[in-house]
Amino acid sequence: MKALVTGASGFTGSHLVKALNQRGDCVVGFVRQSSNLHRLADCQVDLVYGEISDRAAIQAAMIGIDVVFHLAAYVELGIVNEAEMQRVNVEGTRAIVEAAQATGAKLVYCSTIGIFGDTNGQTVDETFVRQQQGFSSAYDRTKYEAQQLVDHAAAQGLQTVSVLPSGIFGVDDPHFGPVLQSFLKGRLKLWAGGQRVTGIVQVDDLAIALLLAAERGESGAHYIISAGDLTTREMFEILGREVGIAAPADAPEWLVRLLGNLLDPVGRLLSWQPPLSRERVHYIYDRCVRVDATKAREELGWQPRSVEQTLKELVLARR
Fold it and tell me: What is the pLDDT of residues 172-207, one digit of tens each?
C-alpha cells in the first residue's frame, strides 16, 4: 500500500508513519515548511511540503496514493486564531476531500469524539445525534464542519472511513507529558477539575485503529476509538500508586472560574495562551462526553491496551 499521511510530523502522525513502516508500506508525509521533523528522524518517509489548504499541492502529493490518512489539524482550546483554525481544519479537509475525489484515493479521516458535542455524561455510540445547541469552542465547530464535509463526500461515493479518538496519550505526548513530568517530580499539588471525565487511547493503539479502518472499515462509517474513560482524579490516583505520590488536591471551583474570567481578556489582549481561560474552564466543569467504542472492537477487531495499562506505561517510561 502507498499511503499519504497529512500531519505526518505530529504526535499521532509520526506514530502512524512508524506503524506503516513496520508493515513495509510506502509512506508519503505531507508537512509544512516550518514543521519540526524530529519525530520522523528514524522513519522511512518521502516528505512533501505545503499548506494543507493548498489544493494544487495536495492533489500533486496524492498522485499514485492508495489511502490518504488525514490527521493534520489545528488542535487548541482557549485563545486561538479562529480564522487559521477554519483554514486548517475545514478548508484543509475540503482540499483533501476534493483531491481524493479527483484521484480515487480512499480517505481515512482522524476526527474526534468532540463532534458529538456535550453528551451531559451520557455514554454514546456512533448512532448518537448531536443535541448540543451551538459549539463549545472554535475547535469543536471546525472539526464538526470538517466531519460534515467528509460525510457529504461519502454520500457522493467517495470511499471514506472516519476515526473518532478520545484523549490521545503516549510517552512523547506534547500535551499531557509536561503535566505528568511535573506530577512525577512531586510538584503538582493542585489541579482544576478532578471530576472532569476524560477518555483515553494510547497513541500506538490509535495508529493501529487507523490502519484497521483503512483495511476493514465500512465506507462512510464512523468508529469511536477509546479504551475507556475516567475522571482526572482517578487518572492521577492510578499514576500515583505506581510511584507513591498522592493525587493533587482539587482547586476550588470558584477560584478556577474567577481566574479563567480574569485571564481570558488578558490573553486576548496580549495574544497569549493563559493556563486558564473561559473556554478551558467550560471544558473542565460544564461539558462531559462519554463514549462506547464497542463498534471498533467488533467490526475492526481493534484490541487496545486498557486505560490502566496505558497510564502505567507512561510512568515506567519516565522512571
Answer: 988 888 998 899 888 999 999 999 999 999 999 999
CB atoms within 10 A of CB 256: 20
Q: Residue 317: its pLDDT value, please?
A: 80
pLDDT of residue 228: 97
Distance of alpha carbon 169 from alpha carbon 183, whole angstroms: 16
Q: Is the dihedral of CA 124, 277, 73, 312 positive or negative?
A: negative
**Beta strands 167-169 and 67-70: pairing type?**
unpaired
d(CA 87, CA 290): 29
Closest CA to 200 of 162, 228, 178: 228
Write the CB contacts of 246 (distance below 8 Å, at least 6 apart in sequence): 240
Q: What is the mean pLDDT of the chain?
A: 95
Domains of the chain: residue spans and CATH? 2-170+199-227+290-304 (3.40.50.720)
